[in-house]
Amino acid sequence: MIVNENIAADHGLKKNEFKEICNLLKRVPNITELGLFSAMWNEHCSYKSSKIHLKKLPTTGKKVIQGPGENAGVIDIGDNDAIVFKIESHNHPSFIEPYQGAATGVGGIMRDVFTMGARPIANLNSLHFGSTQHKKTKNLLRGVVHGIGGYGNCMGIPTIGGQTCFDESYNGNILVNAMTMGLVKKNKIFYSKAAGIDKPVIYVGSKTGRDGIHGASMASAIFDDQIEEKKPTVQVGDPFAEKLLLEACLELMADDSIISIQDMGAAGLTSSSIEMVSKGKLGIELNLNKVPCRESNMTPYEIMLSESQERMLIILENGKENKAKKIFNKWNLDFAIIGKTTNSKKIEIYFDAKKVADVSIELLTDKAPEYDRKWEKTKLPIKNKLNKDLYKNLKISDVLKKILSNPNICNKEWIWEQYDHTVMGDTIQKPGGDAGVVRVHGTSKAVAASVDSSANYCFAHPLTGGKQVVCESWRNIISVGAKPVAITNCLNFGNPEKEKNMGEFVECLQGIGDACKYLDYPVVSGNVSFYNETKDKGIKPTPSIGGVGLIDDHKKMVSMGLKKANNIVLLIGKTEGHIDQSIFAKEILNQKKGPPPKINLFNEKNNGETVLKLINDGYIKSAHDISAGGILIAAVKMCISGKKGININKPKSLINYFEYFFGEDQGRYLIEIEKNDLEKVKSILRKNSVYFDEFGVVQEKNVVLKDNLNVTIDELIKTNKTWLTNYMNS
Amino acid sequence: MNSSVIIFPGSNCDRDMDVALKKFGFKNKMIWHDDTELPKSDLVVLPGGFSYGDYLRCGSMASKSKIIRSVINFAKSGGLLIGICNGFQILTETELLPGVLLRNKFSEFICKNVFVKINNVENIYFKNIKKNTLELHIAHNEGNYFCSNSQMKDIQDNDQIALFYCGENGEIDEKFNPNGSSKNIAGILNKEKNILGMMPHPERMIDKYLSGDDGIIFFETLLNNFK
Question: In terms of Cα–Cα distance, which of A163, A245, A82 is closest to A436?
């Protein structure tokens, strides 16, 4: 087959890009070489639209061992322990085939983590589906949840947290973001940079099939009506094979046989081999006849682009081949020496004794296009002047129940009870709280993790939204008593070739960067998912932030459930009643205009650090950050979680009740303390210039606000819990 | 007390069981499925997980593994053998215990705390146990216990039901049945009462910071009865 512009276009390469390839090669590539270019130059692998903006993120810090650019980020948690973590999207495959798409998303991110020598200790996920009224939503939700559970449960890694959101902007393009944390000894971290020439290149894991060919290019394309036809490009997962691969890799990693290792994820053998030698400034020679194949008559093109799952590429020390082979045989996995490193700085591929590709590594990596795409700034919307008559016929109790049973606020037990969240025996905070927490096995330490997004805020004003979502992550980590250390981000956006979408990306990223810098909460890993668009309709900008924090003594962890009657609940942070972009505005008033709540980074940092200090000093019995839904929802969730009631004080200021109770001002927490500690806690708050109010007193059964509200906790639990189960069973 | 935990490819509660046994003073060894001999053991545990990926049927391939012959001989000569979750499935596949474990009633994986009532206290596992109702944790896709009518009659006549799913106060009612199990059965014994299969995971409930600590009672009772 003679390659031309049209064939290149079918591979997702634009006219000018194909021209550039021919210029660089000084000839027309053959079909295998074109495959390499299409895999390496697509958005998913090359970050061509995002690179120049990603460079602006803060990625270093005292605790950062490895920032972006490796299989995953690594942070130092003391005593020679380190946490490896990353979040990644699997959006397009999950829409086409929800079970396998989600399952292989989980499998892929776990491989990224154990590739670095870490044993995975927790999974999390961030899911966004279309409107609950949309005909596809229920099946997609069911399939995705089954897929995540099917893979993670079989691997024996607890799924300790996540979030599930619904919004019509995801009707044609759901988001499935999976995060994994792993534990490794600081001196036993494995990297992907190859070193040394004539080192054997080893293929291990499952066999190569035709599944997933061009998965990475699909992830870089827009959906159209024919999307169902792309089913064959969705990979099929085998968690059992991955469990064996995990154990075999960790067994081989016990000594120093491995020079470098990388999983075969997006763009399979192509990207793994090229990235490893690119980092080591080496070349590589591959003999594709040696690759274990599942199907017969596979072409070099297919072998290089297959995205079959559960495979790894390893560059081994000379002389360690037999030892490695023995380990992989023990675990019944394929093991093959498929090539060697060279000093040619080229990738040279042989098949049936013929050279089928010969390309300089530099052309595939450093010479990949980098675009500074045009983008449009989003102005801060003016405040939506609401007519107070809108509130006239509303009752606090009705609004409370309506929001509690809203799909975005309701209890998600139906989802997380399908995930094994207790295997490994170290889960000390299960899903449903502010953050999931697992102990660092055999130590007094624990790590907390949370995933967050705020698409409505990001859509209304990307710069503020970007800041807000980092702050929410920070608050969630603090609310369980952990010190926030670093984040991973999954940047889900629309079409970067559209100025509006590109602008959303640029400004969200700026917001994320500003907040991360101020809070000393660096970005250590992540992934970009563009082209989340179907038939010209893009998703709301949705950066998902995976935050990780450290608890030195796990006994000091706190949860959000109220603990004891007569304890005092304090409201930390100032309440101004910001209603625009709130759940209340959207769901009760049907108002979508106006700016998101303002972010004051000084207050965020000061309030958060003070709350953390109070937790560490043992004053706080329960804590919860105030986010979507406002204070009343936050308070009631604490009641539901602890099966206690609360007697809420009347707000002191003359602020409107609805704005006070349902406004979404930022930087706020509710904390529960004992009466005896009240004066001491107040004085600490004052000394640190933290604004606070006495919000209420814990009681046994009812949630009471004089003249406005008196509901039993049982009724609230029912309202909160039944919506999702009923929806899924209807 | 010497114990052995068998590791099959795909087992994933093997480490948790090792941690739990050692915490309560067992001298535990981990045994690979490809071995043929068991070391000297007083107790053998088949842990939870997805042995051989649960392919074919849960527990079916493990029931044909190399080590299983020795495990069967060990149990038939009176040795103590526990199967938890996937281990329970393996025990029914080897026919050391009667019945089968079908998919959960609503075809969904369930991971949550449940209460179980101890039905038979005249055996080494539960004799003199401090509490009759324990709060334990389940995490499974196939825990729906089923057997033929004649098997059920045998099981009942021989007092082989070990545990029932129940409410907080021990009340046995269909509403506390998480997976559709016949008669709310959560665990059974063999006729001789040396083999115990159960779906709940006591090894996940061994200190107060976890989702509960009634697993302590389970392990301590066994250890005390053995002394």
Answer: A163
DSSP, res A377: P
Coil vs helix vs strand at A270: helix
Nearest by CB to A425, from B53, B54, B204: name it: B204
pLDDT digits (tens, 9 = 90+) for A563-586: 999 999 999 999 999 999 999 999
Chain B residues touching residue A561 (CB < 8 angstroms): none
Chain A partners of B201 at a C-beta cutoff of 8 Å? Answer: 422
- Residues of chain A in contact with residue B209, where contact means CB-CB under 8 angstroms, are 428, 439, 554-555
The nearest CA of chain B is from the CA of A141 a distance in Å of: 13
Q: How far is CA A133 from the centre of its chain?
A: 26
pLDDT of A69-104, one tens digit each? 999 999 999 999 999 999 999 999 999 999 999 999
CB A183 within 8 A of CB B15: no
The answer to whether A450 and A481 are in contact (CB under 8 A) is: no
> What pLDDT is stored for residue A227 in this prediction?
59
d(CA A127, CA A104): 15
Note the pLDDT of residue B56: 86
Would you state the pLDDT for residue A211? 82
pLDDT band at A226 (very low <50, low <70, confident <90, very high): low
* pLDDT tens-place string over residues A106-132: 999 999 999 999 999 999 999 999 999
**B201 belongs to the catalytic site:** yes
In this model, does residue A617 exceed pLDDT 90? Answer: yes
- Closest chain A residue to B210 measured between Cα atoms? A428
* Among the listed residues A132, A127, A124, A125, the one whose alpha carbon sits nearest the alpha carbon of residue A165: A127
| Contact state of A418 with B109 under an 8 Å Cβ cutoff | yes
Q: pTM of the full predicted structure?
A: 0.95
Q: Chain B closest CA to A418's CA: distance in Å?
A: 5
- Nearest by CB to B12, which of A155, A419, A426? A155
Q: Helix or strand or coil: residue A545?
A: strand
Active-site choice (A44, A53, A92, A461): A44
Across residues A211-216, what is the average pLDDT? 69
Distances (CA, A) of A86 to A94, A106, A487, B192: 19, 11, 8, 51
> Is the Cβ pair B9, A240 closer than 8 Å?
yes
Task: From chain B, pick out residues whose CB is under 8 angstroms from the CB of A420.
Answer: 109, 111, 139
Report yes or no: A539 and A493 within 8 Å, Cβ to Cβ: yes
Predicted confidence (pLDDT) at residue A219 exceeds the cutoff of 90: no
DSSP string, A455-503: HHHHHH-HHHHHHHHHHHHHHHHHHTTPEEEEEEEEEE-S-TTSHHHHH
Give catalytic status of residue A90 as yes or no. Answer: yes
Complex ipTM: 0.96
Query: Which of B15, B50, B111 is opposite residue A422, by nearest beta carbon?
Result: B111
